[in-house]
Amino acid sequence: MKKLKQELLDRWLLYQFTNDSLFEKFDKWEWSFYCGFDPTADSLHLGNFIGFMVWVHLMRRWNNYIALTWWATGMIWDPGWKESERNFLSEEILDNNQKKISTQISTILENLKSFTWDNFKYSFVNNKDFYTGMGFLDFLREVWKYITVNSMINKDTVKKRIEDPTKSISYTEFSYQLLQWYDYCKLFKDDSVTLQIWWQDQWWNLLTWTELIRKKYDAEVHALTWPLITDSTGKKFGKSEWNAMFLDKSKTSPYFIYQYFMNTSDEDIGKYMKMLTLLETEEIDKIVWNHLQNPEKREWQKLLAYKIVEIIHWEKDAKIAEKISNLMFSDQDKVEIIKNSNKDELSSIFAELGWYTYNDENLFEMIVKSGLATSNSDARKTIESGAFYINEQKITDIKYDFSNDFINWILLIRKWKKNFKLIIKEIQNN
User: Fold this and answer.
1) Burial of residue 244, with CB atoms counted within 10 A of its CB: 0-12 exposed, 13-18 middle, 19 or more buried
2) Reduced to 3 states, what is the DSSP secondary structure of residue 244?
3) Are 391 and 381 in contact (CB under 8 A)?
4) d(CA 372, CA 378)
5) Less packed terminus of the chain by CB within 10 Å, N or C?
6) Lowest mean pLDDT segment, chosen from 229-233, 362-366, 402-406
7) Are 322 and 306 in contact (CB under 8 A)?
8) Residue 97 to residues 50, 177, 200: CA-CA distances in angstroms?
9) Among the CATH numbers 3.40.50.620, 3.10.50.40, 3.40.50.2300, 3.30.470.30, which is that of 4-237?
10) Residue among 373, 376, 353, 322 at smallest CA distance from 423
11) Does pLDDT of 40 surpass 60?
């Protein structure tokens, strides 16, 4: 296994770090690091997944990951770059979100264990517990003593709100920084945590916290950031559309993530493979070279998409996502794909393509009810234009009887090239 620093560099996952002693330490195993998650939603998103892979490379070297729930900070919100105060979430919502995200992290890591054979060490800490029983005066003595108002005001996101006469910032959001720093202090003192990792845009915060721990405890701790991701055009990822794709399959389907990475440009395949999969970097370089010889086949986009979904949602969901993609976009026999799909696969296909239960409708009614036409006259035009298919056979007869065309209990219909729907004649129990 490579040295940690080289691994992160080779995978585009290292942006800033305090000093090289960080890597000397974390290459020697069994040190503790942390990266927090915000319980203001009930799922992590694809932007978090970049950091998740940094955790994995640290854990693969037998280091211990502390997954810190920013429950207390979630109570007051990070001012960030928001223009105004945001509504507080209730304790019940934060508790629910914390439980769901913790389960999500555990599920993905246990999945990874099953096919990497790595013995990941991780545990969960909730910063809600840090403040239980702590009085306000204790907080002032414990935390405020080491942080100046000057440094807090000079933080860009705070400064912007203070200097703009049309905006303001409450004492509550202003105090967010104090809670963030105290997290590191508590984890250092109670769990011997000596490294925090986060996005590159948090670098100055991380540096401030390491310096304050030096002042308070006369100890060296570290910080490391991974980069904000850009594609080959320079467009930023991870803070925009990636944050709209959740790791909870009930919010964002495995197929949706699969298809997103199927659309990766040729120039970005190698970068994303290195960042978001566990394939060896030397193997990835060979893959990219082979891909560039025949890029039109998109074989390596398929591999990238499959590997990412496999890590997030397990092998079964990766195979189902691949099957749906083949059904919609490949030259494979689509009727055979339907015939050879099991119940779980069909359920996912139904969810992605859309479906309805057949109830003796005629051809026009069936097309309209499926959503492939807006009216009977639109359905007629669709058929007469040669755009309508049943089980991949073009239908040009407006009186065509399709009642005997069900594949067991499913009918596959299509308008033009990629607009598919499924019609269910009868739900089977086996």
Assistant:
1) exposed
2) helix
3) no
4) 9
5) C
6) 229-233
7) yes
8) 20, 22, 25
9) 3.40.50.620
10) 353
11) yes
Q: What is the pLDDT of residue 180?
A: 83
DSSP 158: H
Q: Which amino acid is present at 210? A: T
Backbone φ, ψ for residue 327 (5° rounding): -60, -40
Average pLDDT, rounded, for the chain: 89
Structure tokens at 3: 């040295």
Q: Say what the pTM is.
A: 0.88
User: Within its chain, how far is the Cα of 178 from the centroid?
Assistant: 28
**Two tokens at 259?**
């298809």
Q: Return d(Cα 156, Cα 202) in angstroms, integer.
A: 11
Does position 236 have pLDDT exceeding 70, yes or no? no
Nearest CA to 278 out of 309, 301, 311, 232 is that of: 311
Residue 320 CB coordination number (10 Å): 25
Amino acid at 215: K
Instruction: At 155, list the tokens.
Output: 């933080």
Q: d(Cα 331, Cα 379) in Å, to the nearest integer? A: 26
Q: State the sign of the Cα–Cα–Cα–Cα dihedral 375, 376, 379, 381.
A: negative
What dotted CATH number matches 253-330? Answer: 1.10.240.10
Q: How large is the C-alpha radius of gyration of the chain? A: 26
Distance CA 120, CA 311 (A): 14
Q: What is the pLDDT of residues 54-112, one digit of tens each?
A: 999 999 999 999 999 999 888 876 665 455 455 678 999 999 999 999 999 999 999 99
How many CB atoms neighbour CB 367 within 10 A?
27
